[in-house]
Design a protein that fits this description.
- The protein is built from 16 helices and nine strands.
- The chain has helices spanning 3-12, 22-31, 43-59, 76-87, 102-110, 128-140, 177-181, 194-208, 214-221, 228-244, 252-261, 271-283, 291-298, 302-315, 330-335, 349-357; strands spanning 66-69, 91-95, 117-121, 142-147, 154-159, 164-169, 185-188, 319-322, 325-328.
- β2, α5 (102-110) and β3 (117-121) form a beta-alpha-beta unit.
- It is globular and about 70 Å long.
- It has a five-stranded parallel β-sheet, with helices on one face.
Length: 368
């Protein structure tokens, strides 16, 4: 299993994991907005995308190819479906990992109809031969099919109907330049604010026929890590808790009790996150400590700590990554209810400089 696949698999097991599972897909299908006007958040991307789609309809031509990037759970698939809906054309869905040979892509492209939207999720994970075939298909609406092998091989050109490719990626940096350049519009989705997540939850609660107070919506939204998928998943757990305990009106106390039972705290951290912070603070005095040593201390795989727990902890300013290893920031001590010691690593001027200048990918873990 590939490195990022292992991290994703671990994330799917967590209530606060941004990767979707089968239950999420079924729920999202019933809650997914159908138009840009119904889509909550991402105001800048929505405005730009609306202009692109409206212009294509006025010209009477297919829309430019669209690339959506950003962390999982923010609405890339939903926007692809909305694009097809707004253009009133069919939608074909596939993914990069499913296209491992050029022939796989040729089969999909040759069956497209005029104006159809082709959505490729995790487009950065396509095979290189398929990627090179896609260049010509996007630019010239044509592919060359090679028949035979060796000296007897023959290239047969195949014209394609005009179509719109919508690519989605969680790692835009892995896309080769020639592929990125062929997209007419690129939109990067940002994490949602608590206020935006409250709007998402209000819409979902209405569709699920749930009675919640404003304080209840805030309680769930504030623990949702800025991600609509997580917000809807937590809402489902709160709904189950209220149903079992025969609560008709869900307020902040009810929502908090339900999420506390699932070990999701007020800041959105779960058991794994707190274990990482606790080990870093109590066992290693706030660091710096190497990744592998930290993973052993919490009884998890290195990939799990690095790809599942760390991104959110770093984003929240709870954990820092330096060339000498991981360090606990002031917010970590405070979140755990501990006093920040005078000797805390984050106070070291050299490490503070490293936090601002070093890339995590260049990090060399310290052995302990």
């Amino acid at each position: 299993m590939a490195y990022e696949e292992r991290g994703a698999a671990q994330g799917q097991q967590r209530l606060v994991g941004a990767e979707g599972d089968l239950d999420d897909q079924q729920l999202e299908a019933s809650l997914r907005p159908g138009t840009l006007d119904d889509f909550v958040g991402q105001k800048r991307v929505r405005a730009q995308l609306s202009l692109v789609l409206e212009a294509s309809k006025l010209r009477g031509r297919t829309a430019d190819h669209v690339l959506m990037s950003g962390p999982p759970g923010l609405g890339k698939t939903t926007l692809a479906m909305i694009i097809a809906q707004e253009l009133d054309v069919p939608l074909r869905i596939s993914s990069g990992p499913a296209i491992q040979h050029a022939g796989d892509l040729a089969a999909i492209l040759s069956s497209l109809t005029h104006g159809e939207v082709l959505f490729l999720d995790e487009i950065h994970r396509m095979s290189r031969p398929a990627e090179e075939m896609l260049y010509m298909a996007m630019e010239d609406f044509r592919v060359d099919i090679v028949v035979g092998k060796g000296a007897g091989a023959t290239s047969i050109p195949l014209d394609l109907p005009p179509f719109t490719l919508v690519g989605a990626t969680t790692r835009a940096g892995l896309l080769p330049g020639p592929l990125r350049d062929r997209f007419g519009f690129t939109g990067h989705l940002e994490f949602y604010s608590v206020a935006e997540l409250e709007l998402v939850l209000r819409r979902s609660a209405g569709l699920l026929d749930l009675n919640m107070t404003s304080e209840g919506f805030y309680e769930v939204a504030s623990r949702s890590r800025g991600t609509p998928r997580i917000a809807n998943r937590l809402l489902r757990r709160v709904r189950d808790w209220a149903l079992v305990h025969e609560v008709d009106l869900i307020d902040a106390r009810t929502a908090g009790a339900a999420l506390d039972m699932y070990e999701v705290d007020a800041r959105g951290l779960d058991r794994l996150d707190r274990n990482v912070l606790s080990a870093l603070v109590t066992k290693f005095n706030g660091g710096p400590v190497g990744l592998s040593t930290l993973a052993i201390a919490v009884g998890e795989e290195t990939e799990t700590v690095e790809t599942v727990a760390e991104p959110f902890l770093v984003r929240e300013g709870l954990l820092g990554r330096t060339p000498r290893g991981r360090i606990a920031m002031a917010a970590a001590w405070e979140h755990l209810g501990l006093n920040v010691p005078d000797h805390a690593a984050f106070k070291d001027p050299a490490l503070r400089t490293a936090l601002a200048t070093e890339s995590p990918d260049e990090e060399q873990p310290t052995a302990f």
